[in-house]
Structure formats: structure tokens, C-alpha cells
Amino acid sequence: MEGTAPPTPYDPTSVARWAPEPDKRPGRTAFQRDRARVLHSAALRRLAGKTQVVTPGDHSQVWDASPRTRLTHSLECAQVGRELGAALGCDPDLVEAACLSHDLGHPPFGHNGEQALNEFAEDCGGFEGNAQSLRLLTRIEPKRFTPEGSVGLNLTRAALDAATKYPWPRGAHPTDPASPKFGVYDDDRPVFDWVREGAPADRVCFEAQVMDWSDDVAYSVHDVEDGLHAGHIDPNCLHAEPERRAVFAVAVGRYVPADTDPAELAEALDRLLAQEWWPHGYDGTAVAQARLKDATSQLIGRFCLAAETATRLAHGNGRLTRYGAELVVPRGTRMECAVLKAVADRYVMQRAEQERLRADQRIVVLELAEALTLRAPHGLDPQFRTLFERAPDDRARKRVIVDQIASLTDASARSLHARLTGQA
């Protein structure tokens, strides 16, 4: 096996790569190489052009917040995951690589673009951002080639597994067959089956659980921070009963199970409001910015420490890796996190202008898909043009069109759409 064994107890199969390759410089661990490959990838850079929640350039009532993009979110998720993973005994480079990878498959316009692409791709296996991330890591992102073709970044088995939130194909969710979440397309099954070799069926590995919770923590906290900066959230509204009920209604069924008692969410919100660092107002001054940043740090620390403490209580003080443990997040902590998600959803994502924007984005994606279908290989980037010409059937050709659209940023999707539909 190439490379130096990692400092944490990962077995040789975990550091194996789909295509064996020599280590260019002795002394680096296999997971350090994985992290570097993701960090230097074009796919990661493209996330800078994909909106997180608040669109860059939006008018702010109080201060230009330079809101987060998918890239800055991924970097912050990686920092949270690296520290939480290290505290629990995971290899920190492995967890960071997974966190950096978790949003790579997101198409332009985020979940809205994901839904539009899924509609277009219904007859060729659908579209799911997490399945697209695996496809990108193992096939699309140019890094390593074999005589049989591209193997993407050729990450280790453990890194690919750690980046897989949903280790099952479409329609095979272990507890909810109707769930739209899945982690692999049918034509990517060979590498997926290799990644999951020896893994318990449908079970998410420990590092992926750390990545998933770090993602939840980062976006729940930072989306609220961005909403406050942009003037969309008035924290005083969270004391008013009609507004509180509206927030809880958003959370139930979307961020917490549908049978959750809203009173439990009310208790979670009240616990946060009672903290001395909670931001009860925001006016954009330097003092307000510092207080808000402190609240952000306090929330991240609160959520991560709760998970670390509960997991250690359940599994002891040893190194927790792969399938040797489950991440334990107390229910109350999940409720607090869910309330924050619902606050951002209610006051930022559900604004009337956002719905108008989403409708326009769906039109752009679907019209772009139609235009490429009629013109392909014209309009495709050289990489995808070659794949389209080599595709064996219409289903495979349609998947290439989906791959092309998914690779675009928000701006490049609009630019290509305008060019192909004569609106430029």
C-alpha cells in the first residue's frame, strides 16, 4: 500500500485507492493527500459562485455583510468538523476532506436547482446533490486517469465513505422509501460498491456522521448570522407568540420529525434566548458585529461540545473511527439547531422576492437543459462534449447534460442559458 500509515488506527483497506498509485512525496499520510486533492480541485473553487442563502450583492439595511457562499460554508464546515473529529479520535485530515467534499455536487442555485435538475433527469435516474458529489469525486473531476477512463480525484476508500451521507441508491432509504435522499446513481455502483466493501449495509460511517453534524451546525448558525447582517431577521420577533408559532410550523416536518410537539421547540428557543451572549438586537456597528460573532462562536461550541460529551459518555475515551461508534447528539441540541434552521428559513428563504427568484432560477435550469438537449454536443464544455460523443445511449447522453449543468456556477448557468436561448 502506497503512502505512510496514518497516525490514527485506520486499517490498510481504508487507505486503499480505486486506482493504485505511488506516493509522490514520502512522509504524507494518505488522508493528507485526500484533503489536498479536494482543496486544490476546480469543483471546490466553483462553489465560490454558488449562493448559500443570502445572495451576494443583496441590499442590506444596515451593513454589507459579504454573505457566505457554498465555498465559505464548506471551509467553515471543514474547520468545525476537523476539530470535532480530532476531539473524538478521527483522523482530522480525513474528516476535513469529507467536509470540503460534502457540497461539491450542488448545482447552480442550490436546492432549487437540484429540484429542477431532478425533474429533468427523472427518466435517467434523477438528480441528487450527494450522489452527484460521489460522481464528481470518482469520475468527473479531472485528476487521475486509467486506461479505462477518469477515476476523478482517486481518493481513499475511507475519504469517499466519509463524504457519503446517504449510502444507498435511489428509492432504497432504509427507513423511508419515499425519501428523495440517496448517495449513488446506478451507473456509479461499481465504485460505490468498492467504497462500501465490508461496511454494514446502509450504515453511515462515524466520520460521515461527524461531517453531517458539522454541516448542520455550520449552516444553521451562519445562515442566521447572515440573515441578521442583511437585515432580514429581527431577533426581537422571536419573543412574539405569532412569530414563534410560524417558526415552529416551518421546523415541524422539515427540520424535526412531523410528530414533534411545538412546545419542545419553544423550550429549545427559550434556552437560546436566555443565554447572556444571545444577540437581542443588531444595528451593524462594530460592537454589534463583535457581539454577533461571539454569539456565532458560542453556538458552534455549544452544539459541538454537546455532541462530543454525549458521544464520549456512550463510547468511552478511545479513538472513535469508521464503524466503531455512532455520533450521539442530544435531542435537545438537535431541537436548538433545528430552531435556528427554521428561523433562517422563515425570514430569509421565504421572503416574497426569494420565491420570485427561485421561480426564475427553475426556468433557467429547465430551459438550459432543453437547449442543451436540442444542441448537444454544441454548448457543452470540451470535457462533457467528449463524454457525450462517447456515451452509449440516450440515457447516458442525458446524464452528461445533467453533469454539465450541475458543474455550472449561478452566473455561468445564466450566461450559458442566455447564449443558447438567444437572450444574450
UniProtKB/TrEMBL annotation:
Gene3D superfamilies per the UniProt record, alphabetical: Hypothetical protein af1432
Residues covered by the HD domain: 70-220
TM annotation in the entry: none
One Pfam short name: HD
SUPFAM superfamilies tied to this protein: HD-domain/PDEase-like
Classification via HAMAP family: dGTPase_type2
UniProt record similarity statement: Belongs to the dGTPase family. Type 2 subfamily.
Official protein name in the record: Deoxyguanosinetriphosphate triphosphohydrolase-like protein
